[in-house]
Amino acid sequence: MVFTSQQEKSFNAKGQQTRCGVVRALGLTSGGLDSILSALVLRDQQIEVAWVNFETPFFRSDKARRAARMTGIPLRVENITRVYVEMLKNPPCGYGTHMNPCLDCHALMLKLAGSIMKKEGFDFLFTGEVLGQRPMSQTKPSLRYVEKRSGFEGYILRPLSAKLLSPTIPEQHGLVDRERLLDISGRSRKRQMKLAEASGITDYPSPGGGCLLTDPGFAGRVKDLLDHQDDCEERDFELLKYGRHFRLHDKYKVVVGRTREDNRHIARLIDPHQDIELRMSDFPGPIVLIPSGAPKDFIRTAAALCAAYSRAQDDQPARVCVKGPDVSEILTVQSDSRAKYHPYLI
Fold this sequence. Notes:
By secondary structure, the protein is an alpha/beta fold. It has two domains: 24-198, Rossmann fold (3-Layer(aba) Sandwich), CATH 3.40.50; 242-344, no CATH class. It has eleven helices and eleven strands. Strands 6-7-9-8-10-11 form a six-stranded antiparallel β-sheet, with helices on one face. Strands 3-2-1-4-5 form a five-stranded parallel β-sheet, with helices on both faces.
């Protein structure tokens, strides 16, 4: 079914006729240059564009919010931590170099965006993906995999590489002029930078680096958490960003602040109804946290660890304040060498 002009009829993903003369597209955005350019390419065709950004403890919406302010494109931000973690535990396509499930991550986001598209009457989805820019996740087979897993095959347009890909349903229906889409491919960003300059876009973030799951240290902590804890909350993943983490027991771990800034973040994340907090009584030292509490013998071990990372002298008695839902006391422990605990660092 092809129309001679998008001004005559528009159909959304349900096949329902939309408002005459108005084509609406919902895009995934990270806030990067490719996301911005893909939206502007469609907006130049008088298509009404909006963005959605999904956030978790592994990636945030700061860049997307900045891009929305700069372009005036409406943005909605949704936290998807719970559903994302379920996917992260066993991604069908596996992980990248570390704990990054890139293909299944993108498929999930497009599935969620597609639900918004259907519910709110958008005609199609779009992304800023560039064919061949990322050797694993932006090949033709990878893009097809993501489309099929999302459940919205044919309704996902990649404006920057569209001429190198099969026509989508919105192109076939005349909602988008394929001739005015682009044929960018590969890792070079020269064409994008020229387009940005021509569009007056000068303030955009560097590509990549937005997902903590690609960081080897953070990924190791995520794996440890998923291996040892069944019901992980958003707070548990936020804690992974701060301090030193020690796995001293299969069921319990200890988080030790590194800096004053670390201590501030850890203190903010403490749940007084379930966590055990430890601080030095007589010496400067870190905030130490036992997430979700622990038995008394483990608390004493954590107190010794707290003393080891304080300014208390090795092999000298040190007093540690312990506070939790069912405990408030001062323990006297022997300050050990930090080297004793290095094997337990996550």
